[in-house]
Amino acid sequence: MTSLTPESATPGSPTTTDADIVSVRSALRSPRRLRTEVLAGLVVGLALIPEAISFSIIAGVDPRVGLFASFTMAVSIAFLGGRPAMISAATGAVALVIAPVMRDHGFDYLIATVLLAGILQVVLGVLGVARLMRFIPRSVMVGFVNSLAILIFMAQLPHLIDVPWPVYPLVAGGLVVMVLLPRYTRVVPAPLIAILLVTAVVVPSAISVPTVGDEGELPDSLPSLFWPDVPLSLETLRIIGPYALGMAIVGLLESLMTAKLVDDVTDTPSHKTREAWGQGAANMITGLFGGMGGCAMIGQTMINVKASGARTRISTFLAGVFLLILVVGLGDLVGAIPMAALVAVMIMVSVGTLDWHSIRPRTLRRMPRSETLVMLSTVVVVVLTHNLAIGVVVGVLVAMVLFARRVAHFTTVDEVAHPDDDTKVYAVTGELFFASSNDLVNQFDYRNDPATVVIDLSGSHIWDASTVVTLDAISTKYERYGTTVEIVGLNPASAERRARISGTLTPTS
């Protein structure tokens, strides 16, 4: 590894390596980088408080449950996760999945669900579920990012509707600070300055506006170990199993997508498999402390990485530590922070998260319609369901269907030779799978072809059983007219697949 002085080990430096950018040791040796990480952790810790309280309400639990979950998730994933600087905490997606358990069966069953979900995530991580990320197209990622930006903005609307009029100039002032301050200095994160300035305006003047304390009661004690009082039986597994599986899948999908997004923002790689089982271990730890579980938080991650410039695990760890200190030790002060300040921060996050290039008219005109459709389908489903995981799954399915449809049209059947009166040669080119091979059977002139037909597949490849069955059907049709079929030109993989499957999937007369 290249040896760097603290001053040279900064992102963007020509001699900086990926390992240096995300290295905790490198950050500890650089006062400037360490300051960035500490202040970023403080900003994120402040931003986590109202979010955790809101998600606790969605899940139907006491605000302390969401706040403690955010603390334990952030601190745990700082050590266990595979993506430095990513923030994990209590999230809305997880709250929506487990809310029915709390409503129908109570708190103990909810914690049991969180523990089981953590175990499932560890198992899925060890089995390599992170490798499935390679099958998510770029257009789905763009839709994921854009829908996230919309959801973040929509989440602020309740704090902007039917509120005292001073809220609006306060939000506007916070936005102005965050837009203008980075032009002059980046020593202190602009979101932190905006929060402090808005609070400094409101508190001394006693302006009556909603505050963090109005969102819910803040805890006054540390979290303690908790074990759910549920019977260890198949009936318990039947109750919590489906919800735990849903939580595990939603949490992993959202976390891995967020990790990929941070990879792109920071131009540094991450260990997706470690992130997968790390999320599971963090959820197990959270459950053992009576927390509601969670996953990666994209909004807070963008505050940490994009708005504040953090790159290491230090910021993630301190976000959890500052959260606990703020709500337990400084609850009265934190409760006085105007919600207008945090709303302004989240609006800036939504604006910075949206991929504006993807929705420019010039980009949309150049982009294939299928790619735009995949992006829009992802956005629409996420916005309607408020569930990023469902939107991503729908986007991937739409992309698969459109891809199969497009590739299917590339398959052609041409008559290429007629060596004698009794022989005709067809050449099949293209990828042969269920979508393209279904029409293959109708591309031959069974009634008028000569006694021998040669089908040359040297320009194609057999990908599935549907194609083998189709080739058998073509041979059978020709046999009815007394024509002999020879299939030639198969590459080794196609020949092996046809030899193994041919004649076994259709009933014999």
Automatic annotation (TrEMBL):
Topology with respect to the bilayer: Multi-pass membrane protein
Sorted UniProt keywords: Membrane, Transmembrane, Transmembrane helix
Compartments, record wording: Membrane
Q: Where does the chain cross the membrane? A: 38-59, 65-81, 109-130, 142-161, 167-185, 192-212, 312-330, 336-354, 374-403
Pfam families registered for this protein in UniProt: STAS, Sulfate_transp
Matching entries from PANTHER family are given as: SULFATE TRANSPORTER YBAR-RELATED (PTHR43310:SF1)
What name does the UniProt record give this protein?
Answer: SulP family inorganic anion transporter
- What taxonomic lineage is listed for the species of origin? Bacteria, Bacillati, Actinomycetota, Actinomycetes, Propionibacteriales
